[in-house]
Structures are given as C-alpha cells and as structure tokens.
Write a structure and sequence with these properties.
The chain is an all-beta fold. It has no helices and 10 strands.
Amino acid sequence: QVQLVESGGGLVQAGGSLRLSCAASGIVYRTNPMGWFRQAPGKQRELVGRISAVGNTKYGDSVKGRFTISRDNAKNMVYLQMNSLKPEDTGVYYCNRLSPGTDSPWGSWGQGTQVTVSP
C-alpha cells in the first residue's frame, strides 16, 4: 500500500521560508519521479515542481528561483524548500509520484500540509 505523508506547513509572513517534507512508503521510491502540487482555495490542484529519479528538477514559472525540490533516496524523502514566500503561495501542498514521462500524478494522495502566507 502506497502512503505519502506531507509535513512542515504552517503560517508564515510574506518573505519568509518553509521547508516541506514528504515521506513515501510502499513504493519502489527510488525509480519514481516525484512532484509537489498545491491547491489554493477555490482553485484546481497544480504542479509546483518535479524531481526525477536521478535528481533533475523543473519548476513552475510562479515559483522558479524561490522554491527548490530535493530528495533523499536513502530515506525515501522528498523536500520542498520555499523561500521568499508570497500570499499567493497559500494553499494545501501535496507530493505524489508522477507517471513516467508526464507531469501527471500517479496514485493516491496524502493528506497534504497547509501553507498560509500572510501579507
């Protein structure tokens, strides 16, 4: 059974930083590209950025230069370092596997972690 557990969210002022963590279990983690998604109130879930199995990263335009994704394959962990946060970064953040060769999520979602950025 695949399980994804996100943590590290919270309330932060604009310009601040947070580091989110995603613990993955029940999958052959090392071979999976992983993505961080977020869902803002009243909006669809969107891909924030992705990391390949070997550590190559790609980011959405709205977070490029501010967010960094990393992974620790030995610990089955994926991280999202968020700097220079803006109120529009507010939302629930999720991690998930990505279907190979796509940016589409693959499998069940975790509970997510809430990030709230105050002006």
